[in-house]
Automatic annotation (TrEMBL), chains A, B, C:
Documented EC number(s): 2.1.3.2
Stated name of the protein: Aspartate carbamoyltransferase
PROSITE patterns listed in its UniProt record: CARBAMOYLTRANSFERASE (PS00097)
InterPro entries: Asp/Orn_carbamoyltranf_P-bd, Asp/Orn_carbamoylTrfase, Asp/Orn_carbamoylTrfase_sf, Asp_carbamoyltransf, Asp_carbamoyltransf_Asp/Orn-bd
UniProt KW keywords: Pyrimidine biosynthesis, Transferase
GO molecular function: amino acid binding; aspartate carbamoyltransferase activity
One Pfam family named in its UniProt record: OTCace_N
Length: 284, 284, 284
């Protein structure tokens, strides 16, 4: 029994958790949006999670506040119920990162010795922070960070790259000048809800748009990733290009969440139980 | 695995799809209202559907905009996932029509050679448009269209009747004068959300109300249908009358949706797989 | 097949019904909040329930209006579908009471010969009214009613106690003076949504707060109950105290709802079918 506690809406993440659990042979309950839950009565995350831990075997939580998943995990610990972070504010989105990694390996055949471009809102994009953090564990990645100055990655993320084995980065404002060097291009949505003003959002959202013309300068085997939903950062005429990998990410997202839920429930997937696990070389 | 993508609320339609799929042995996930989905982040229908097609085997979509189901069907086509239109704006509501047809055949024993009255908001009522379109395929129907001048059926619907084999229509303003001639009376809700102003809604909503007094002039075997929800178009004192067929429509609605989902999934219902299908005679 | 019709949000109650039904081997569908349902189109409770009764085998309803569950039960009667009241306004919340009783018996070993304190909002608290009503059936309870004068229990509840076998009550304003005499302390939330003004809510909500200091005066085996969600009526430092029983209530809530659904569906729980039922001695 999975409980999905989504304090923010997310079709993709919630439905992939729910269908994943059902495909594993389990069931799912939950809420989507605080209007449906006791949050509107002032209940704390810890109380809600401790309550739901009495009903469910595993909890997936999405929350607008950074750190909410950690609070939830501590509250559910006593009941022995694992909590999966399905995105906490601008902080992390680890299951999206698992989908990203699966897709990169599918396309590139490896998770190391890559030049990875990340483009758009690198300040508030939790998927960007999660992906950089995780690729740093594998090592030997050159990150090309493409963003306007106002939306650069936070300093703690740069510090993480500096500490990682064989990793380096460059920060640029222009996608066109670097796209030809990339193995992977990770586009991100300029998220309206993270902005302080409508004006600032409108000014910046069209800066980093990928279309067929810009894509022409990329390598024929570059993989274009995007955590979705997109607004207009990738023109729909790119969808049919074989380099477009973002709908593969969606499919992989369900599969990695199935694997993760099976793992935290100590329920080995059929045929995979005896295999040795592959672990990152650069793990610290 | 069914996904219900309901961009507009609909208890009846959504729950009948979901319980129908569960009764077929499957499962259902989805959302009800855009507040629960990534729509609020500006995602297009096509992207949402293409995403959900990675999780589900069949999709049922309800959307306030005409043509949304067609867009959805095209987006899901590549993934080989069938999309069922669960109502698109003022355009069509084909599974309601299947429920209507099942109920008419149950009551009248046939779907042709009938005098069918449709009463209320005939301009915005998508169930009316769907039902007329479909009965025209069977042929030999006389339609009695009862509405205020402001809420008449659109011209393209009248054109459809003109082209259909053995079909005819009359447009009247008064239910009392025609009720005695009807085999079927299809009442519709004057939908507040389709009106331009509150004043216009209030002025028109009470015009075409069916109560016991008015029903007295009808034939003893006339069937009263309504797609529900009703507000006050049918007085509750009509519910106990044997001519009231609208709660039968509800039950039939789940059954026809089960049959439809089984059909689009190529999953023949037990005991029905070898039967020859009955097709409309007037099919064009 | 359970349908949960929640016209008001309630994470705890809805999820415990749904997970309970799934653990019994069934399934659950429903809505949480009127924004998701046809209520927004003006449909009556009776029509909604009669519709849902065509899909589901049992219905659980939560509604902000007193008496809604009774209306629902009458509407579903014709279809032979049992309706469970999951809370109707300030009136009753009987399945919460079943959870309360299970927890009291678990802690005290009996449901009679007890001194039971109820503290906080006793006027609007439906769980309080349900619990008093039910304990009166068992008899020999002394109720200590702790509330500000503005939030005392309604007179009909006091009349109920007066009629019950061996039952008595006292009304006090101060928890500290009576806490030492209690076998059970039932804390309640001062529910913001039941108040007439924000000012009145703020003035009263902090009046009856239980913390470690106040708990020190209680017996070592007193049980602290709370229907949850809490806002600040019980300080979180009380959670680790062995007298805190409110998270046990949550777990018991799912179990009693499973038992109730099995009972109304005539589906005897495995191993319990042949046992003689225990009935309240003071039943009237």
């Amino acid at each position: 029994m999975l409980a999905t506690l989504f304090y923010e809406p997310s079709t993709r993440t919630r439905l992939s958790f729910e269908t994943g659990m059902i495909r594993l042979g389990g069931n799912a309950v939950g809420f989507a949006g605080t209007g449906q839950s006791s949050v509107s009565k002032g209940e704390s995350i810890a109380d809600t999670v401790r309550t739901v831990a009495a009903y469910a075997d595993v909890i997936a939580i999405r929350h607008p506040k950074e750190g909410a998943a950690l609070v939830a995990a501590r509250a559910a610990e006593r009941a022995g119920v694992p909590v999966i972070n399905a995105g906490d504010g601008g902080h992390m989105h680890p299951t999206q990162t698992l989908a990203d990694l699966a897709t990169i390996r599918q396309r590139c055949g490896r998770l190391t010795d890559l030049t990875v471009g990340l483009c758009g809102d690198l300040m508030f994009g939790r998927t960007v922070h999660s992906l950089i953090e995780t690729l740093c564990r594998w090592g030997n990645i050159h990150f090309v960070l493409v963003s306007p100055p106002e939306l650069r990655v936070p300093q703690y993320v740069l510090d993480r790259i500096d500490k990682a084995s064989g990793c380096s980065y460059e920060q640029v404002r222009d996608l066109a000048g670097v796209i030809g060097s990339l193995d992977v291009l990770y586009m991100t949505r300029v998220q309206k809800e993270r902005f302080f003003s409508e004006d600032e959002y409108v000014r910046l959202r069209d800066t980093y748009v990928l279309d067929r013309a810009r894509l022409a300068a990329a390598r024929p085997d570059m993989a274009v990733l995007h955590p979705l939903p997109r607004v207009n950062e990738i023109a729909t005429d790119v969808d049919a290009d074989p380099r477009a990998a973002y709908f593969d990410q969606v499919a992989n997202g369900m599969l990695v969440r199935m694997a993760l839920m099976a793992a935290v429930l100590d329920d080995p997937l059929p045929g995979y139980g005896d295999e040795k696990r592959q672990t990152p070389a650069g793990e610290q």
